[in-house]
Structure prediction request, 280 residues.
Amino acid sequence: MSGNQRGILWIILFVSILPLMDAMTKALTDDYSAAQILAVRFIFVFLVLAPPALAGPGVGMLSPPNKGLLLVRGALISCSSMFYVAALAYLPLATMAAITMLYPLIVTAVSPLLLGEKVGIYRYSAVILGFVGAVIVLRPTVDGIGTGELLAIGAPVCFSAYIILTRHMSGQSDKMTQLLWTVAGAMIILCIAAVQSWKPITGEALGLMIMAGLFALGVYLSQIAAFDAGEASVIVPFSYLNIATAALAGYLIWGHLPDGLGWLGISLIAISGVAVALRS
Prediction:
């Protein structure tokens, strides 16, 4: 099996797990704040990751040369995650998945300024098409856009900043060190943010949070494995299957489906994202 084929299988696992994690998280938003849900998740992920990570690269992982930037990455992931989870309380899974997938377009749009990369007319045209799709999905009025949609925009914006910083730090430390420090940074910030809204967790809710943490770990590791195995231009288009799997999960659990205009906007975002990936 070729590297690209392995990468595709890993990304298919990724898009299969992600909606399940989101469904559990959405169910928890009725009773708990985004910060509390995520704090428990990141504590769990950190406790699972830390022992094997330290047993691999060893104690050198405790003091990487770029730990300040690694913690900033953690802050960006925590902000992106809080926007994402807060928006899940308002929006269907498919809509949230589509808005989140704006991040490759945002990264492409700003990469000439921040990373010195060349972006031709083809990719800029695809970016514009994707942003048109986002406007259709969000449907702003003269009074602005809804709370859920406003929160949702924050997720890909923060995640785009995370991706740009990751590219800037490329090769400065190994992937496991980057992952552990990013998770640690996010965990600390989310625990601090959760203090004000913390409430007792029932046994059922704790079980859901831990299960969501397990799925989150699977999401992180399968995504890393996918891009380690294959070429990004081959793998990224398959990540847009997440919109379909999220729509299926949302329909089966809550009966939620986007309307006709929503599907049009989602389709434009997906088409533009695939076009950018294939041209990269």
Q: What stands out?
A: The mean pLDDT is 86. The two ends are 24 Å apart (CA to CA). The CA atoms of residues 45 and 214 lie 7 Å apart. The chain is about 80% helix and 0% strand.
